[in-house]
Amino acid sequence: MHAGWFRRSTWEAPGIRIDEYSSRRNCAFLECQGRNFPSIWAGKMNMIKDTTVNQNDNQETKTANPTGVEARLARYGGLSYLHMPAVDVHQSAAFYEQVFGWNIRGRDTDHPSFDDGTGHVSGAWVTDQAISREPGLLPYIYVDRIDDTLEQVEAQGGKVVKAPYPEGNLWVATFRDPAGNVIGLWQEGAR
């Protein structure tokens, strides 16, 4: 086991008990009677215990109660929610779902929302905010294969702004989503 933040949570729902083990390395899963379930389900159940333990100093702290805000989002100091400007919210939702595998909620409404691939960041596409055409605050999305992801970006209606370039042991690139927002990508290791 490596040092870092680990969380063990236990929830109960009628007839089942679910344990979640997660770490900074996005190893979140729920196990119930030997089966794995998406960790997003945890927020819909009554929490018994939710603690965070820092393996570096064995400090234990309580985390948020999912009957209010889901514990996966209520992480002190963690980026957890975004409004993403869009021209067509459904086109943007389809883009991020196809390219990054984001979970889309409210797909058939005028206000679709999302959970990113880790489940730690949620948000919604909005049409009442300016498109981020020039990077000010520039969010980066981690990917396993930056070149393949950029091919998907273009196939789904986005455009490469800056081709992959090395930054230490990382590869970094930027693209425009279909609405025109500039977003970054990064990959660790060789291309």
State the main characteristics.
191 residues; mainly beta; 2,3-Dihydroxybiphenyl 1,2-Dioxygenase, domain 1; 2 domains; six-stranded antiparallel beta sheet; four-stranded mixed beta sheet; 2 helices; 14 strands; 12% helix; disordered N terminus
In total, how many beta strands? Answer: 14
User: Percent range for helical residues?
Assistant: 10-25%
| Mean residue pLDDT | 76
The spatial strand order of the largest sheet comes to 4-3-2-1-5-6
CATH-defined topology of the largest domain: 2,3-Dihydroxybiphenyl 1,2-Dioxygenase, domain 1
Please give the count of helices: 2
CATH superfamily of the largest domain: 2,3-Dihydroxybiphenyl 1,2-Dioxygenase, domain 1
Identify the overall geometry: globular
Radius of gyration: 18 Å
Q: Please report the distance between the alpha carbons of the first and last residues.
A: 28 Å
CATH class of the largest domain: Alpha Beta
Q: Judging by the overall fold, what is the CATH architecture of the largest domain?
A: Roll
What low-confidence regions span 5 or more consecutive residues with pLDDT below 50? 1-66
Helix/strand order: EEEEEEEHEEEEHEEE
Residues in β-strands, percent: 35-45%
Structural class: mainly beta
Number of domains: 2
Major sheet description: 6 strands, antiparallel
Description:
It is a single chain. The protein is mainly beta and 191 residues long. The protein has two domains: 5-62, no CATH class; 81-188, Roll (2,3-Dihydroxybiphenyl 1,2-Dioxygenase, domain 1). 12% of the residues lie in helices and 41% in strands. The strands form three sheets. A six-stranded antiparallel β-sheet has the order 4-3-2-1-5-6, with no helix packed on it. A four-stranded mixed β-sheet has the order 7-10-9-8, with helices on one face. The protein has a four-stranded mixed β-sheet with strand order 11-14-13-12, covered by helices on one side. The model is unreliable at 1-66 (pLDDT under 50).
